[in-house]
Amino acid sequence: MEVTRRNFKESLNAVYSALEEADFLAIDGEFSGISDGPNVSALTNGLDTPEERYSKLKKHSMDFLLFQFGICTFKYDQTKSKYITKPFNFYVFPKPFNRTSPDLKFICQSSSIDFLASQGFDFNKVFCQGIPYLNQEEEVQLREQSEERRHQHANGVGTPSFISPSSKGPAHVPEEHKDFINRVIGKVDALLTNSEKSLDLDPCTGFQRKLIYQTLNWKFPKGIHVETVETEKKERYIQVIKVDDEERKRREQQKREREQEELNDAVGFSRVIHAISKSGKLVVGHNMLLDVMHTIHQFYCPLPEDLQDFKEVTMCVFPRLLDTKLMASTLPFKELITNTSLAELEKQVKESPFKSPQVETAEGFHSYDTAQQQLHEAGYDAYITGLCFVSMANYLGSFLTPPKAYISPHSKLVEPFFNKLFLMRIIDIPYLNVTGPDLQPKRDHVLFVTFPKEWKTSDLYQLFSAFGNIQVSWLDDTSAFVSLSQTDQVQIAMNTSRYAESYRIQTYAEYVKGKHQNKEKLGQTPKSWGEDGWRKPHYASATSAATFGYPRGLRKRSISPVQGEQGSADAPVTDGWSNYSYPDSAGSKKMKTDDKSGQANAEAIESKTSEGWLKTADASDSTGSSPVPDDDEAEEKESPEGNDAEGTVTWQQAPAVHGRKGQKKKKSKGATSTTSLFEVPDVW
Question: Does residue 127 have a pLDDT over 50?
Fold first, then answer.
């Protein structure tokens, strides 16, 4: 169902009904852009922490507009053994409903607009028929202003919408406006003596309207009602109507009711998000971090500075989330799915060993045909996201004894994927854990290097040439992470750079320590987690954004480490999950099943869980090298969080020739490894 401003009010009941009866719903959004500064590679550095990724997206993505929102509800019909779907495609635009309502500024990114236009996106519907919205703070503020104006009008203060007999004397009229006001008085005198019931004055300026209100309020204390009317073309004029006291009060009440109705209309699409939140239903998305951030930012409240505060807000708005991209990137699906982009995922879950779910579109709703691939229409993307979830959830039923063809979205088999949002391109932290602490890789093989602005990638390769294969992850023009192939070479690199003048090398642990010290200097209270995985309460609010830089001491460049100090190139990178520290102990857990036989199924699930089928990949067996994410990937939903790093990791030998800074992360033609992009430990 396509929903615009024209049919939004009559469609609301259908939306509420669909949400109330749904077993789960899928969502998707389309945006006016992704990044206002950094390119996708810089915005999604492979060694970001969850805090850094959140900070980058908040800083560089939230000034864009989410202007199309797709929802598809899924309800399982036991009698038909199929899902009944109700798709909605909302066009959203923050149209101001009056002069005091927020006049939102947003930006567009030409590549995103061009991409959506190539997909047939209808921008006229966004700007001409988009549904307005207000976040909670804006709504409260406008309601308070409306109530204040009502009190002012009742007391004869301010600009009244009707004539009140409270003025003590005539208003001061500037000399140049006296003729204009006298003509208005003459027209009103004529209205009171003839048979006409109303008078429409000619359009005039805001100052002239104010003079008219003040003058008529004094000159005609009774018998007329005066209000400003706005045409469809935004022209404003004053209408004068003959009334008695009873009619004046009735019109006053109508005016208040109309203002409240306009205010409710201005809340607009936010009412749908409130309904989703109130329902408590499972919300499914694909690579949905950006969708969640934009939804909260536009329709609830500005995003908080701190990641942990964002998690708390997210849990208030969406108590249960599931990301199909993370699900598809996790065992047992990782072994079966080669490409986790939404379009390719939808194709692959139709094939064996998966089974296409049986679905039927409810009567009165638009039926999507997946063969036509209406990709990047938010309603369609939400629809196929839900189909992918159903197929993968049902596949988990094959691990039960006896196997089950249908797995409920409330099943214990699905719970391990709840409230974990996919983090694209981060090599060793695959997801953001919304309900607890995030994974904490030690990154002992990573160095933080600061250097002069003139340096290029080739300079870093030359500097670390004695250490074999490295990976360079640029942070800005004067700093980068350098990942060594062997952890035991880190201290050698530190020793050789001790007396360097033009650059500075720190371990990753020192970099993190310095970052935390900077945050404390800015008055930010570090977050701590209890043994039960819940964050300990704090009451000191953040006063400014987290600073992720580190003080740099740049000195004259020295020579590279000597070859004689180079370690063995045959030792593998210790990039497995032994390098992680966990705030909570995590091990194999028994899972309840949906089958009443109980014991046999529990043993089956325990066996599968013990084998690690909820991990994303096997441990790496590559040696003597360091991973570089593949940058030559197709962008998904024109989003940096939509880029599909499908687990292909290249191993790059430090080149002997110089390159340009523009080629900082260019992939060499070295041999590729089948090592996964990330490995998830048995933390569930």
Answer: yes
